[in-house]
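Q: Sequence in, structure out?
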Amino acid sequence: MDTATSSTKVKSESGDPVQLSELRPVACESLVRLGSTHDGGYVVPLVAVKAAGALLSFGLSHNWSFERDFKRQNPGAIVHCYDHTVSLRTALQYSIGQLLRFAVLFRPAAWRGIFTWIDYKRFFRASGTHFRQRIWSDNQNNSATMDDVFRRLPPECSVFVKMDIEGGEYLVLEDLLRHSNDIVAMAIEFHDVDADPERFNAAVALIKRDFYVVHIHGNNLGGKTSFNFPVALEMTFLSKRFFPSPPPPSRLTYPVAGLDHPNHPRFPEFTFEF
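A: Exactly. Output:
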C-alpha cells in the first residue's frame, strides 16, 4: 500500500458531531479497486459491478479511469456519465496544461495527461455516453434530475452509482434514493463535512435504510475538520439485498492494505480507529 509521510488518526470522542461508530463498514467479500491509484479510484464490491446493467457516473473532471475499469469488469454495462464542466475543448486545454507541466517542471506523472483529449474521444465514442449536464433537483441551467437520468436507461435496469459532485450530493440524494430498488451499490464522495456535519449524518442515515456501508476512505486532499475528521469522505454502500442476513462488522483496518491509496501521495493519509 502507498503510504504518505505521516497519517492522521480518526476516532470520535463523545460529543463529536460525527460518530465514527455509525460509519463502520460491515464484512464484505470481493472488494476491488477501480480507477486511478490515487485520486479518482474507489474501492467497491465486485459482485455489484458484475450485477449492474448500467453505471451512472456523476462527476468526471478529466479522469474517467473508474469508468474505464468498470467497463472492463462488465463489458455489457451501459455507462452514462454526467458532468457539465467537461468537453472535448476542456480536455484539450487540460492536455496542453499537462504538456507544459511535463516540459517545464519535468513531472513524469503529467505524461499520460497529455493525451487526455484523445482518450476522451476514444472512450466516449466506444464505451460510454457523456451528458454535458449538471445533476440537480430541477432542469434549470442545463440540469438533469434523477428522474431524467433513470428514464434514459432501460426499464428495471440494475444500476451502480458513482457520485462526486462537490457538495451537490446532499441536494439530490433523496431523489436518487427513490430509485433504490434499482440500485445495487453506490460509491459516493461526501464533501463539506465540516460546514454541516448534521447534514452529513442525515445523509448517511438515509442511505443505511436500504444499504450497508462496505468501505470508507478519507480524501486527504480535502483537509480535516476541527474535530479531526476528513472534510471529504469516500464511502461505498452495497444494497442489503446482497446479504442473506445482517453481516458482522468488518475486521479490516482502514485504509485497507493493497486496496486503499492516499488521494495525494505526499499528503498524510487518514487512518480510522473504530
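The chain has two domains: 7-86+132-272, 87-126.
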